[in-house]
Amino acid sequence: MSIATKPLTPAGERILTVASALFYDRGIRAVGVDLIAEEAGTTKKTLYDRFGSKDGLVLRYLERRFERWCAFVLAHLENYPDDIERILGVYDALEAWMRANDRGCGFVNAYAEFGGTDHPALDIIRTEKEWTRSLFVRLATEARFSDAEALGSELSVIHEGAVIMKTAGGRGDAIDVARSIARSLVAR
């Protein structure tokens, strides 16, 4: 059973909700368990009882974020019956997601803190990146592109670049530019 499939108590849910906001807004290493417990109205003991360690809480945060991202995108794509528009719809979903996530990709942010280590968070970070790439590959396959694997990889890189340019690059039009490039790629 993965960490994410274990049900949370109300206190565990509060801890995860508070930690998720703090980790995303301030950074994982910048946030201590004392602050999380205080903000969640619990004790450090409760945090450790529910998550085992701060690393356990970090994994649960990333797993929950991954689940929410996947569900968000897939629900968004239900509005696009046309195969080509579904591919471009991922960029629409990204634009909607970014309205509430102005600090960029939570997985890239976590990688900035844990890259080059053996932290278990790296597995979920890479899983999220691979899921997004494989989503584009699947959509390109459903749209009957003969080079679906290559096209999906290209679309994924454009997607990732749009997030970085919108946030770190300060380009408000980054997702529009990415969508335009993607439209050109699928039209070729």
From TrEMBL:
The UniProt entry, under InterPro entries, shows: Homeodomain-like_sf, HTH_TetR, Tet_transcr_reg_TetR-rel_C_sf
Alphabetized, the UniProt keywords read: DNA-binding, Transcription, Transcription regulation
What SUPFAM superfamilies does this protein's entry cite?
Answer: Homeodomain-like, Tetracyclin repressor-like, C-terminal domain
| Pfam families, per the entry | TetR_N
Q: What are the DNA-binding region positions?
A: 32-51
Task: Provide the HTH tetR-type domain boundaries.
Answer: 9-69
> What is the official name of this protein in its record?
Helix-turn-helix domain-containing protein
